[in-house]
Structures are given as C-alpha cells and as structure tokens.
Amino acid sequence: MGKGGRFGLDGPTWRWLAEEALPGVGITGVSPLKGGSTNEMLLLTTVTGRNEPYERCERYVLRRHRPSGTRTRRNTCAVEAALLRRVAATVPVADLVATDPYGHATGVPLLLYRHVEGVPLDALLARRPGWAPGGLPGRRRRRPGAL
Questions:
Q1: Which of the residue ranges 36-40, 48-52, 94-98 has the most confident prediction, judged by mean pLDDT?
Q2: Which of 12, 21, 68, 111 shows the smallest number of beta carbons within 10 Å?
Q3: How many helices (H) and strands (E) does the chain have?
Q4: How confident is the model at residue 7 (pLDDT cuts 50, 70, 90)?
Q5: What is the rounded distance in angstroms from the CA atom of residue 1 to the CA atom of residue 5?
Q6: 96 near 84, Cβ under 8 Å?
Q7: Which phi and psi (to 5°) does residue 101 adopt?
Q8: Is 26 helix (H, G, I), strand (E, B) or coil?
Q9: What is the pTM of this model?
Q10: Backbone torsions φ then ψ of 15, nearest 5 degrees
C-alpha cells in the first residue's frame, strides 16, 4: 500500500472516500490519469466482497477540481455534477457515484464516478487526416509567414 495505506492521498480525501463515497469498499490502487489539464484525475481500483466467494474489482475516477484562475466565481464541480445527473437518463455518461461539490469534507471540490473505457479525444482526433494538435479539426497548420 501507499503512504500509511492511503496510496498518497491526503487524510481528508481518504476519509471522504472511505466514509462517504465508497463505504465498505477496499481501495487497492490509485494512479494518475492522463489529461485533466485543469483538474487532477486519479484512477481508483477497488475490491468488494472479500469475505464472499467472489471478489469484485471495480474502477472509479476521482476528479479533484482546482480553483479557477479567473476573477469570475464559479463552481465547475457543482455544475458538472448537476449536468451528469440531468443527462444520465438520455445520454450515455459515466455514473456519478459521489460528489463533494463545495469541498466541505476535503477543502477541494471532488467528483467520483465510475471509470468508462474509451479513447482520449486528442488520440481520436489525431487519427483524422489533416488534424494538427492545437489546431482545428480539418484545418491544416500554416508555416509562419505563409499565406
């Protein structure tokens, strides 16, 4: 296990996961996910049913929202949680498991949702002909000074 059995997670986050978000579920691994340029994204691996004939392993994504760098006060975590709940019945989205949108438990807004296998958007777009990273899909980058 990681630091003190917490895989490098701070005490308040560990308590929130163990007591509120995933009570009774054993966390067996924590690793960073690629992407998350504005927020920290962690992949949690868990096991349940240790005392049952079959253990069940599941994966979750913990999203720790960083403060906005703008002067406008906004809570993107609360907005994201509300949006996930609202569209879940009509659009395929990851299942929201738990949220602390105002950071009451940890000091940082948190979202926990089930992991969904997929391909990152930048990798998917990179497969398209004419796509350049940082550019618009379908537009080719110009050389400096070219018309």
A1: 94-98
A2: 68
A3: 3, 5
A4: confident
A5: 5
A6: yes
A7: -65, -20
A8: strand
A9: 0.73
A10: -65, -45
> What distances in angstroms separate CA 70 from CA 67, 74, 111, one per listed residue?
9, 9, 21
Q: Tokens for 131, please give them.
A: 């796509």
Measured between alpha carbons, how far is 60 from 64 in angstroms, rounded to an integer? 13
83-138 pLDDT, tens digit each: 999 999 998 888 999 999 999 999 999 999 999 888 777 777 788 777 666 555 55
d(CA 125, CA 103): 34
The beta strands (E) that lie in 18-109 are given as 26-32, 39-48, 56-65, 96-100
- Mean pLDDT, the chain, rounded, equals 80
Q: How far is 65 from 81, CA to CA, in rounded Å?
A: 12
pLDDT for position 44: 95
Cα–chain-centroid distance for residue 40? 7
Cα torsion 60, 66, 70, 76: sign: positive
The one-letter amino acid at 55: E
Q: How far apart are CA 29 and CA 2, in angstroms?
A: 8
pLDDT digits (tens, 9 = 90+) for 23-36: 988 899 999 987 76
